[in-house]
Amino acid sequence: MRDLFAWAKQNQDRVIPKSAISKALNYLVSNETGLLTYLKDGHCSLSNNIAENAIRPFTVGRKNWLFINSP
């Protein structure tokens, strides 16, 4: 992995700035610590689906609860 991040940093300036490969390299370099954390500990989740599903009832009900006590 160290070689991949070193290669990405080295080639970041060699590609066309707004190309897809440039965006991919920038993403890889800017998220290096998070990606390495995930690789070191497999229990970390890459998605936040559990948190999203936990708050969904409140966000869905927000509009309904706004006028619950109004005449």
TrEMBL record:
Q: What InterPro entries does the record point to?
A: Transposase-related (IPR052344), Transposase_IS66_central (IPR004291)
Q: What is this protein called?
A: Transposase
Q: Which residues form the Transposase IS66 central domain?
A: 1-70
A Pfam cross-reference name: DDE_Tnp_IS66
* Organism listed in the record: Megasphaera hexanoica
